Q: What sequence folds into this?
């Protein structure tokens, strides 16, 4: 099912939670809605679900306008943050429940529920109550229940936020596996960029109700179209250097100039930590701090107000207090206007 958001907005009395969102989610893809707290992720998902009616714009499923349809009429499955399992029912009864509500015959409902339980690998737990399950198992039950009526769209609202780090990783791989097995168009809300970049075909990155970039994960990282995207994606964060374009020439802090057509203006020059490297010339700063993070060594140089982070090569060693020179290749430099818009060279 292709999902089209046509210029949708959602205004609550004096807040614009979502502002003129235009995006097409391709059939069979897993798309994450990513962004900081309060940016409008859940509101967007609730509009897709039919829980909120947009104050403006239209939502189309396979070209058909569903903007005014109730959640029941949309053919969607939904999993919420807290799973919302029925505590007095067994796993099997929980999964069968949506079928029971739609008056599916009991034998048929049971067979379908068991098939779903197998898909999410909890068919050995059918007689347990939710309180006797781990967080990850409860999550699987919630997914099986959302899928049991064979919806064409699956909506997930921060489904992993109650799980510990290790389980989150397992469950996100599971969600991807299940999604691919069913080829079901899936929209996944998260504020965790690693999660979003890890499992999505496309990511819809929002800020303050606006769409910032809809793209494949690698492009969000390598080709951010706005300074917000460059800063939000990547950990440790991207580095910034002040620069100025004068008569079509940008002097970089690395000792070389870049020429291109652009009006005179101050700019931000951005370079990711893995794209800065030690050299004999270029920008020089004092080493403040050195950190081993697993296989990587991160050096923090500069001052507290103007920190620069770079990864060192295995054989490189620097000492705190030492002054080092760093360089970046022109291909790894991204340039932004003061307004945040990218300047393409
Ligand atoms: P989080 O990651 O914290 O869950 P979010 O990105 O999902 O945030 P939303 O819940 O969509 O953000 O909220 C977007 C904005 O709309 C926020 O400013 C929020 O306060 C506001 N908002 C959300 N729901 C309502 C509501 N029912 N009434 C009024 N304002 C609301």
A:
């Amino acid at each position: 099912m292709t999902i089209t958001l046509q210029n949708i907005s959602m205004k609550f009395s004096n807040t614009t939670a979502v502002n003129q969102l235009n995006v097409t989610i391709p059939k069979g893809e897993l798309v994450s809605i990513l962004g900081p707290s309060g940016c409008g992720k859940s509101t967007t998902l609730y509009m897709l679900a039919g829980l909120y009616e947009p104050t403006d714009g239209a939502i189309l499923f396979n070209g058909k306008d569903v903007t005014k349809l109730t959640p029941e009429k949309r053919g969607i499955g939904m999993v919420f943050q807290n799973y919302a399992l029925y505590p007095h029912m067994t796993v099997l009864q929980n999964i069968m429940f949506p079928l029971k509500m739609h008056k599916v015959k009991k034998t048929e409902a049971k067979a379908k529920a068991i098939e779903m339980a197998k898909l999410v690998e909890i068919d050995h737990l059918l007689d347990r109550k939710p309180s006797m399950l781990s967080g990850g198992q409860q999550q699987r039950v919630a997914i099986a229940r959302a899928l049991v009526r064979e919806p064409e769209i699956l909506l997930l609202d921060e489904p992993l936020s109650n799980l510990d780090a290790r389980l989150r990783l397992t469950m996100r791989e599971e969600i991807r596996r299940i999604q691919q097995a069913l080829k079901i168009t899936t929209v996944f809300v998260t504020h965790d960029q690693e999660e979003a970049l890890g499992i999505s075909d496309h990511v819809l990155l929002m800020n303050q109700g606006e769409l910032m970039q809809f793209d494949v994960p690698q492009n969000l990282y390598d080709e951010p179209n706005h300074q917000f995207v460059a800063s939000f994606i990547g950990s440790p964060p991207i580095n910034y250097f002040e620069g100025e374009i004068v008569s079509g020439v940008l002097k970089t802090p690395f000792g070389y100039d870049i020429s291109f057509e652009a009006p005179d203006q101050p700019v931000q020059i951005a370079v990711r930590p893995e794209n800065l490297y030690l050299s004999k010339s270029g920008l020089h700063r004092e080493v403040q701090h050195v950190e081993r993070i697993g296989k990587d060594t991160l050096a923090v140089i500069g001052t507290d107000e103007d920190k620069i982070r770079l990864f060192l090569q295995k054989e490189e060693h620097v000492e705190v207090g030492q002054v080092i020179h760093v360089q970046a290749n022109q291909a790894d430099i991204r340039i932004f206007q003061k307004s945040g818009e990218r300047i393409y060279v």
Summary: The chain has two domains: 3-232, 239-343. Helices lie at 41-49, 91-101, 106-119, 135-147, 165-182, 193-199, 217-222, 227-232. The chain has eight helices and 21 strands. The chain has a mean pLDDT of 95.
